[in-house]
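Q: My labmate handed me this sequence with no annotations at all. I'd like to see what the chain might look like in three dimensions before we decide whether it's worth expressing. Could you predict it?
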Amino acid sequence: SNLSHTLLSGANLTKANLNQADLSGAIASGCTMRNTILTDANLRGARMSWTILHGANLTKANLYRANLCWSNLSEAILIEAVLIDANLNQANLREAKLSKAIMPSGSQHQ
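A: Here is what I predict for the chain of 110 residues:
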């Protein structure tokens, strides 16, 4: 799916299968993506603040420079995801799986 630079703000994409979707530069603030499949998705530069990604599968997703501030990523799977320069300020990462995630050295998450 090519959703690059698409306006998705407020959309309910719960349990959607967006495997390998191109959401680069998309404006998706305030979306509900509970248990959504975003494996291998390109979310580079996507604006996703205040988005609910509880339980979403973001394995190997590219989140380079994505804005995820104030988002709920609790129980999300971010294995091998690229999080370099992603904005995770105030994001909820409780119980998120971050093994082998590519993060800038010295970065912290709460």
